[in-house]
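Marked as duplicate of an earlier ticket. Keeping the data here for the record.
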Amino acid sequence: MVDRVIAGLPGKYREVFVLAAVQRLEYQQIADIVGRSLASVKTDIHRARLEVRRRVKEYLGAAPR
């Protein structure tokens, strides 16, 4: 389910989310890898985390108890 949620993220969010949450790179390293500003990377990681959280909550809310 987590793989499906991550795969469903828009590309620019998925890329930075995986680098931050899965590979545990520092934000500056991620910015250097993707060739974007540090501020842009921080914003997209934040948005990706919010979207992952929303989708997981949605999944868990839909699951039978």
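See parent ticket for discussion. Residues 2 and 56 are 8 Å apart (CA to CA).
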